[in-house]
Design a protein that fits this description.
single chain; alpha/beta; 12 helices
Length: about 350
């Protein structure tokens, strides 16, 4: 008999599953609450009858992650390497802001998108994470820190929309009032631009923040940096973004990695401003992180400042991402590669 991945079930599916086991409907709320609290075994579910706990042990898998490594930065950032139950590893990073702690979680083991500036994609994609494994990164970081996390960003290793169904289940589960009950307005999801999934998410009408990894002002440059652009060219992507904004009424944030001598010229800022003119959006400029294998270098501070000023002068809200955890290789994918090499 195939074991059920219980932590990845949405509430309604869990309710149906327990009903098939002969349990009353109120058991779903009890079990779901425990799953959203970060329990590591069914024996921790103290208000659940032993008979049901035994049934669950026989029929389901309860996902957990094990802390393989923890790195603490002098600025308060904490980086985790989590070992999954099959021995694979992913990473999460917890950042401290004035409004509380935010965690950036991974959605896949590796990534197949091939973006030139990203360390996560160097080894390719191994597998998708389950909705339960996404949730575990949040819950077990909270247990380790002894603090509640107030914001979640799906921008770690992997492309969230390449794992769309599990990501959607995670969003439904972490925000469910009987579970972890984190408001969707405190969740951001990043994508490199998988257009059909942007349209699908718009239909869900969830009040999350959608982040689009743009990183170039035209197709020629974006093709070079991001292979996904061959399938979903820039104008197709921007049309999907406009449709998303129209459908949901929510602002989109465009991520733009600043790479010296590649995409940081004045003409790039001018072209980007033209492409985004009139759109309800925000641009987040990100000086590229050093990745040994790609040889790319971050733009000079004055170049980033000039780029930002030009966009702002053309009525595009623009910020420069605050750098956190640089002393612990906190950018996406770097620490996992280092950890695996050492192990």
């Amino acid at each position: 008999m195939q074991m059920i991945d219980i932590k990845s079930l949405r509430y309604e599916a869990l309710e149906q599953f327990l009903k098939e086991l002969g349990e009353p409907s109120y058991r779903a709320k009890q079990v779901f609450s425990w799953l959203g609290s970060g329990v590591s075994s069914y024996d921790e579910m103290t208000n659940i009858p032993k008979s049901l706990r035994e049934k669950l042990k026989e029929t389901t898998l309860l996902s957990t992650v094990e802390r393989a490594a923890r790195y603490d930065s002098k600025d308060g950032t904490v980086k985790y390497i989590w070992e999954l139950q099959d021995g694979q590893c992913v990473e999460s990073v917890v950042m401290q802001y004035h409004h509380g702690r935010s965690i950036c979680i991974s959605t896949q083991v590796g990534c197949r998108m091939g973006c030139k500036f990203c360390a996560s994609t160097l080894g390719g994609k191994i597998r998708n994470l389950t909705a339960g494994e996404l949730l575990d990164q949040v819950l077990f970081a909270e247990k380790d820190l002894g603090e509640r996390i107030s914001n979640v960003v799906l921008m770690g290793i992997g492309e969230p929309f390449d794992n769309y169904e599990q990501v959607l289940s995670f969003l439904k589960n972490i925000s469910h009032p009987s579970g972890r009950n984190l408001g969707l307005r405190h969740i951001s999801v990043s994508t490199c631009g998988i257009v059909d999934k942007i349209a699908a998410l718009a239909e869900e009408n969830l009040p999350i923040t959608l982040l689009i990894s743009l990183h170039a002002p035209n197709d020629e440059l974006r093709n070079e940096l991001m292979p996904v652009n061959h399938k979903y060219p820039m104008e197709t992507l921007l049309q999907a973004c406009r449709a998303y904004i129209s459908k949901t009424g929510r602002r989109i944030s465009f991520e733009y990695t600043m790479i010296r001598g590649i995409n940081d010229f004045d003409w790039c800022a001018k072209m980007l401003a033209q492409k985004l003119h009139g759109m309800f959006c925000h641009v987040n400029l990100i000086p590229v992180n050093h990745v040994e294998e790609n040889g790319l270098h971050r733009s000079e501070p004055e170049t980033v400042e000039r780029f930002q000023k030009y966009l702002q002068q053309h009525h595009i809200n623009t910020t420069v991402r605050r750098e956190l955890g640089s002393d612990i290789s906190a950018s996406c994918g770097q620490l996992r590669r280092k950890f695996l090499k050492e192990r």
